[in-house]
Design goal:
The protein has 6 domains: about 170 residues, 3-Layer(aba) Sandwich (Rossmann fold); about 60 residues, Helicase, Ruva Protein, domain 3 (Orthogonal Bundle), CATH 1.10.8; about 110 residues, Up-down Bundle (Zinc Finger, Delta Prime, domain 3); about 90 residues, no CATH class; about 80 residues, DnaA, N-terminal domain (GMP Synthetase, Chain A, domain 3); about 35 residues, no CATH class. The protein has a 5-stranded parallel beta sheet, with helices on one face. Strands 6-7-10-9 form a 4-stranded mixed beta sheet, with no helix packed on it. A 3-stranded mixed beta sheet has the order 12-13-14. It contains 27 helices and 14 strands. With about 575 residues, it is an alpha/beta fold.
Length: about 575
């Protein structure tokens, strides 16, 4: 007996056998029960979800002579002829290879003749979106007003490619991707019938790899069964499908928790040697971290489509990690996934990300220490919301001074008794270096003194003063273009908004790049929350003349200019026998 693939051997024969398409099956059964069948159906959805199978089941049911509970009997002459692929009333047409107008005209001719046996002539047209424009047009009239005994069942994976005039004449059924749990249940049933043993995780991996298509899952099942003898484990399925074993991801997270960078590097080296691409590794690791995050909450844990044994492992590892660690790692790897396509050294990009991931917990601990430090300094959460701390090297203090926190290179204790802060001033900034012993009162006194010094400036916010800042800055730059841009600037002030006027957009682009100049304006007015805007205003600068564009000289004009500069140039041209073109 010849081998029959599982996708054909276990093809559903009744509506109740359809997997994951209960909404389709129930609607069709109700239509048959109430005798409200449309003359044309369009079955749309991803590949391998049961569109053609549902069409065949419906065709059999409509012509069955002994229909019982919406199930074809399989014994009557109509059912037997259909099973033998010899029915004269049910026609299957592959539109991918029969897509011309001649094929549709032949179909239209067949529709004219009544069925020889049974109640209906049924036409199943697969991949209907492949029909040509002329074929669609030839099909329109027949599809709109067929004889009462004709039924059309169209199937497609790309509904958007079908012209609207066809769609409007069909009753549309949208098939869903089959859920992993439904695929696993069907695979278990088939494995029991064939007396093959699979562990639960192996079946879940096959279902995940199938991406919602039952036909793909059965094809993978056949491949694994033919290559593995005896009981089939997750590891064997992963090797057969070239999928990275989840053990690697568990070890990587364990290494990151322990801050064992060496372990992370060695694990990834092993992964790379096995031939897995960097993109494939990153996507798998992202999925692993996502599942760790989901399993932390009972409500989101229900979203995981994995076996019970594997779920227990996720729960155990998730208990060792914090939400902050998982979210930071997800963000880091997601950024790597976005940028890795442009990387010239993808392995190095992955190793950099793993190195950062190894020390995420240490960074989180430091942030906690600095948060305690803010509490000691009297910086409230509202102030932090306005001026976030720790995210950048230079950090704004409550108002509007800037506090720069220099972190020590060595690891800080998780909960210091009292971190010390040694202030030093520079240009209105306060630098804080946490140490073990601290004199909080002295620190606060120094900060207050620095703030008072800054507040004592009381500079006038006026166009003249702003012009002085720009003029002083101009003296320290070498770029002639930037000097010209600063020279052609004027200022308008409205409340706390400074509008810098220039005669051209090019000058705006030059000045915007000078962050030090913009920062100088804010330093001179520390008590104000200033906004700096730029506008082009040609009428403000009537004397401004755009630079002349250089004239492109012809070869002859260049030759004449060189002769003016050096009369001997003509001798050189004659000696080399050069020709001067116009």
């Amino acid at each position: 007996m010849s081998f029959v693939v599982s996708a054909r051997k276990y093809r559903p024969q009744h509506f109740d056998d359809l997997i994951g398409q209960d909404h389709i099956a129930q609607t069709l059964k109700n239509a048959i029960k109430n005798d409200q069948l449309a003359h044309a159906f369009l079955f749309s959805g991803p590949r391998g979800v049961g569109k053609t199978t549902s069409a065949r089941i419906l065709a059999k049911v409509l012509n069955c002579e002994n229909l019982s509970d919406y199930k074809a009997c399989g014994e009557c002459s109509s059912c037997k002829s259909f099973l033998d692929n010899a029915s004269f009333n049910i026609f299957e047409l592959d539109a991918a290879s029969n897509n011309s107008v001649e094929h549709i005209r032949a179909l239209n001719e067949q529709v004219r003749f009544q069925p020889q046996q049974g109640s209906y002539k049924i036409y199943i047209i697969d991949e209907v979106h492949m029909l040509s424009q002329a074929a669609f047009n030839a099909f329109l009239k027949t599809l709109e007003e067929p004889p009462p005994y004709a039924k059309f069942i169209l199937a497609t994976t790309e509904k958007h490619k079908i012209i609207p005039t066809i769609l409007s004449r069909c009753q549309i059924f949208d098939f869903r991707r089959i859920q992993i749990k439904d695929i696993v249940l069907q695979l278990k049933t088939i494995a029991e019938k064939e007396e093959r043993k699979f562990d639960d995780d192996a079946l879940h991996l096959i279902a995940q790899k199938a991406d919602g298509a039952m036909r793909d899952a059965l094809s993978i099942y056949d491949k694994v069964v033919s290559s593995v003898e005896g009981e089939i484990s997750y590891t064997e399925v992963a090797e057969n499908l070239n999928v990275l074993d989840y053990e690697y991801y568990f070890k990587l997270v364990d290494g990151a928790i322990k801050e064992d960078l060496t372990q992370l590097m060695l694990i990834y080296d092993d992964i790379a040697k096995k031939g897995f691409e960097a993109e494939q590794f990153i996507l798998g690791f992202l999925e692993h971290l996502r599942q760790l995050l989901l399993v932390k909450d009972l409500k989101t844990a229900a979203l995981l489509d994995i076996g019970d044994n594997l779920k227990k492992r996720y729960e155990d590892q998730a208990s060792l990690t914090s939400n902050s660690f998982l979210l930071s790692s997800l963000s880091l790897l997601n950024e790597t996934d976005i940028n890795i396509q442009r990387s010239q050294n993808k392995r190095l990009s992955v190793e950099i990300s793993l190195s950062k991931m190894a020390y995420i917990n240490r960074l989180l601990d430091k942030k906690k220490i600095f948060a305690e430090l803010d509490e000691d300094l009297g910086i409230s959460d509202d102030d932090n919301a306005k001026s976030p701390i720790i995210e950048t090297k230079e950090i704004k203090s409550p108002k509007p001074k800037q506090v720069e926190i220099q972190k020590q290179a060595q690891p800080l204790p998780t909960k210091p008794s009292k971190p010390s802060k040694t202030p030093s001033s520079q240009s209105g900034n306060v630098k804080i270096t946490p140490t073990i012993s601290a004199d909080i009162d002295s620190l606060l006194a120094n900060i207050a003194e620095q703030e008072n010094n800054i507040k004592s400036k009381n500079n006038p916010l006026s166009p003249d003063f702003l012009n002085q800042i720009f003029t002083a800055y101009k003296k320290n730059v070498e770029s002639k273009a930037l000097q010209s841009a600063i020279e052609f600037t004027k200022f308008q002030i409205s409340d706390d908004t400074i509008t810098v006027l220039t005669p051209t957009q090019i000058y705006i682009d030059y000045i915007r790049q000078e962050l030090a100049l913009i920062e100088k304006i804010h330093e001179e007015f520390p008590e104000k929350d200033l906004k700096v805007k730029f506008e082009v205003s040609e009428e403000t600068f009537p004397d401004y003349k755009p630079p002349k564009k250089p004239k492109h000289l012809t070869t002859k004009e260049k030759y004449e200019m060189l002769l003016i500069k050096n009369a001997d140039f003509k001798l050189l041209v004659e000696e080399l026998k050069l020709k001067i073109s116009n």
